[in-house]
Amino acid sequence: MSVHHDISKHSNDQHERVRLFSKLDLKREQLIEKAFVKCKEKKPFEKELTEINKVTDEINHLARKGIVPQRKNVTKEMVEEYCKRN
Questions:
Q1: Number of other residues whose CB lies within 10 A of the CB of residue 45
Q2: In CA terms, which of 11, 14, 58, 74 is 20 to 30 Å from 84?
Q3: What is the number of domains present in the chain?
Q4: Model confidence over 12-38: pLDDT tens digits?
Q5: How far apart are CA 74 and CA 46, in angstroms?
């Protein structure tokens, strides 16, 4: 393989990682919003927490490969605290 081909492949891999990160991060934010709304309505939101942290794990798996940031897992207490402040 030529150096140019290797560089192009590396660049394409990074671009794909960023694209996938953006998609997953948006999905995570939407799930966080759902959990927040349910918390405000005093409804259970454990299902949303499970989904949020599943997506977070996917993001962190990508982040270990470089170029994209990690995200923290979300706890019930974090959502409740956010609800109290907003």
A1: 24
A2: 58
A3: 1
A4: 888 999 999 999 999 999 999 999 999
A5: 11
Does the reported pTM lie above 0.90?
Answer: no
Domain with 34 in it? 3-85
Residue 65 phi, psi dihedral angles, 5° rounding: -85, -10
Helices (H) and strands (E) in the chain, counts: 3, 0
Backbone angle region of 67, left / alpha / beta, with phi > 0 → left and psi within -120 to 50 → alpha? left
Judged by phi (left if over 0) then psi (alpha if -120 to 50, else beta), residue 29 lies in alpha
Token pair listed for 70: 């990690």
DSSP letter at 68 equals: S
Instruction: Report, in angstroms and rounded to the nearest whole number, the Rg of the chain calculated over CA atoms.
Output: 17
